[in-house]
Fold this sequence. Notes:
The protein is α/β, with parallel strands linked by helices and 365 residues long.
Amino acid sequence: MNRRSFIRKGAVGAGFAGLATMATPALSQNKIVWRMVTAWPKNFPGLGVGAQRVGDRITEASGGRLTVQVYSAGELVPALQSVDAVIDGGAEMSHGAAYYWFNKSPALNFFTGVPYGMTARELSAWVRFLGGQEIWDEIYGQFGIRGFLSGNTGTQAGGWFKNEIKSLDDIKGLRFRTPGLAGQVWSLLGASVTNLAAGDIFQALQSGALDAAEFVGPYNDLALGFYKICKYYYTTSFVEPGLATECTVNLKAYNALSKDLQEIIRAVCQAEYEQVTSDFAANDPRALEVLVKQHGVTAISSFPDSVLEAGAIASKQLLEELGDKGDALTKKTLDSFTKALNLLSIKTDTTDVNFIEARKKYFRL
């Protein structure tokens, strides 16, 4: 894939001014047209492709009764304003990551990823079976929207660095792109953190505005071309263990749909969660091989123990502060998340980890 081709299409557009002149959703012969705005460059591996697939599958499954037109980042609104378009009614649907909008509610961080938190499977279990969706509906209901899980990257990479991280001292003053609670943890470790949309990161690294950046993992990072500037690649994140994407819908528009169209949206999003997770599982290792063998990247499996330990302390401190100082919904979300994590980790820690360690030690084909 040509990196410039999709980044150019993912550049920041004219914003909401263009939405003001757009027509309301088209209804002709019982057919409805929705607009989905996304946080991703067009044809972006895993994420942008997944968003397009959601739109296409809703359109196909509904027999065209509900047609979803998908717009990449910047085509109608800037990447990090896509959910605002849904709230304001300029679009009926968006595809992004809930922690991009944590300024609306800190609780939204929990529905994307939490440092030292849930894996992809654990997060899905919490949302679908242990009360997470109901709390998410309560949070987003304040803004007239609803969220659905629509994908997961799995455990992300730790990021790209111009210099190797050997100790905590190497983090002090580091200009680092990373969002959400993950970014707040890195800030507590001494980094200067900012969040940028995917299409803006490469230029910031190239110009020297950033010393390091993380986005997702090898599959996306290869396409974004970070290897051209940074050669040290930490392949395991401790702050983003299972990052979920979301589809949001405008509740007024959603409630106006027939029950079967509502169910199609829900079912397509649920199917896409597994599809995207499998996409990253299949393509991250292949992309990592290319980065190492063809582009000379130094892949480092883990940060130093001193960084991991300090990161764990900072993560716990951050979550405790959210519990102590957060609003009622944030406290409710944290409590539900914590109870679910403690339950779900029983299987992960005592069954999955033991099996993986045994397979790694004793079995190879």
